[in-house]
Amino acid sequence: MTTETQRSAARSSDTVAVLGGGRIGEALLGGLVAAGRDAGSLLVVERDADRAAEVSGRLGVTATDVADAAGRADVLVVAVKPQDVQGVLESVPAGRERVVVSLAAGIPTIALERWLPTGTPVVRVMPNTPMLVGRAMCVLSAGAHADDAAMDTAEGLLRSVGRTVRVPESQQDAATALSGSGPAYLFLVAEAMIEAGVALGLPRPTATELVTATVDGAGGLLTGPGNHPSLLREAVTSPGGTTAQALRVLEAHGLRAAFADAVEACRDRSQALGATYGG
Length: 279
Ligand SMILES: NC(=O)C1=CN([C@@H]2O[C@H](COP(=O)(O)OP(=O)(O)OC[C@H]3O[C@@H](n4cnc5c(N)ncnc54)[C@H](O)[C@@H]3O)[C@@H](O)[C@H]2O)C=CC1
Ligand SMILES: O=C(O)[C@@H]1CCC=N1
Hints:
Elements: H1 3-12, E1 16-19, H2 23-34, E2 42-45, H3 49-59, E3 62-63, H4 66-72, E4 75-78, H5 82-90, E5 99-102, H6 109-115, E6 122-126, E7 136-142, H7 148-158, E8 162-166, H8 172-180, H9 182-199, H10 204-222, H11 229-236, H12 242-252, H13 255-276
Parallel strand pairs: 1-2, 1-4, 2-3, 4-5, 5-6, 7-8
Antiparallel strand pairs: 6-7
Helix pairs in contact: 8-13, 9-10
């Protein structure tokens, strides 16, 4: 067995507990099950009993409480809303070596470490909702006690549900503004295009199908090897043709400036949220 295979084998035998069985928590657990991980090694801690039963019934994972999860898990994933994180982490008992992977927006590792037993390796992650279809972009940053092995563990998990990138924690707010919140910008663009098609007289189902297929196809081109958005846009834009007219109008309406301002506002909000936790 190669070293890499040994490392992967060790990771897939880890017991993983997800604290919070909401949208992101279930998406991660579902992705892990779909990637072939034994559901018996997956735990969910969800305070809403009906929701806990729903997630465990759907995925075959075990619903339990924080104390039990913390006692059994090699990896604890935090997937509750930011305002619920402190309460959950302060109930994690000391005494077991485990990596904590936080998916909570805006909460800096320095705060997570303060709420956890001293010395706990913490990895802060900004995921996004395409995790629901196994196509997440997860941006990872190491806390003060997270070594390469802890980062490998977190990355190994998250690769089951999409792509991963490591950045210094100082770049997390900017990353949130691009990939964390980014799906919402694209959904807004899709919505606007559908409404524009309806205004031109297309039946709504037709407009919706045309736009969703176009967004999906364009995404496939964009993630292809060696492709760049400028080149792809040029390839659609015939001299004197139709696309050039549409692009001229979008530029005249300040599309690029709108995106620059929006991304900056999002980054600022993420920074402000972090500052409330001492980041
Ligand atoms: N939705 C998104 O696009 C993104 C969300 N995130 C982060 O992911 C985290 C989860 O977000 P969602 O899944 O959208 O929220 P959600 O509200 O769908 O899920 C949170 C779940 O945690 C449960 N919960 C709350 N307190 C609990 C406790 N003390 N013990 C056990 N369970 C508890 C709730 O009952 C709920 O089911 C948040 O911190 C958010 O910042 C990060 C990036 C993107
Ligand atoms: O809007 C939010 O606060 C969260 C974080 C990134 C995406 N959704």
